[in-house]
Specification:
With about 150 residues, the chain is mostly helical. It has helices at about 5-20, 30-50, 65-75, 110-120, 135-150; strands spanning about 80-85, 90. β1 (about 80-85) and β2 form a beta hairpin. About 5% of the residues are buried. The model has no long low-confidence stretch (mean pLDDT about 85).
Length: about 150
């Protein structure tokens, strides 16, 4: 699944380079590696969208036992983090996060693969982050439309 964000980052860098007025401000990319990745990703895009979801807070879901323990220590400790409260980002350290989903601004650009994953997994994948309410509603509407057609 990490291929999806990598493909998006490459797209963003290429768009940035295309819009750069000063050629010296462009980011340098190894075009051979980029083209190899693009070809490979095009062949396995759907597989990547539906791949098993990694969850660093769940044992046996993509991270080692020690890494999962480490992440839980960070979730339990009252470390400073930003939370979106009534449209404003506020620094908080209490209560600890305890594995709660991270906040996403309502106007954030969400990659289309998120909705595709929700629909293609028939709702088994449903991100619970605050700020994704509209995406969840749209995906549920598409799912209910598919259910009626079947």
């Amino acid at each position: 699944m990490s291929d999806i964000p990598l493909a998006w980052m490459i797209e963003q860098i290429e768009e940035l380079n295309e819009s750069a007025v000063d050629p010296s401000s462009r980011l340098s990319l190894n075009q051979h590696l980029i083209e190899d990745f693009k070809q490979s990703f095009a062949e396995k895009r759907n597989e990547a969208i539906l791949a098993e979801q990694h969850d660093s807070l769940k044992f046996g879901r993509g991270s080692s036992f020690l890494k999962t323990c480490f992440w839980w220590v960070l979730e339990i400790l009252p470390t400073r983090r930003l939370e979106l409260i009534k449209g404003t980002w506020l620094a908080r350290s209490w209560p600890p996060n305890l594995g709660s989903p991270r906040d996403i601004p309502k106007d954030a650009a969400i990659h289309p693969s998120v909705k595709t994953r929700i629909v293609e997994t028939k709702g088994h994948y449903m991100p619970m982050n605050d700020g994704l309410e509209q995406l969840r509603v749209a995906a549920k509407e598409e799912l209910s439309g598919r259910t009626r057609l079947v």
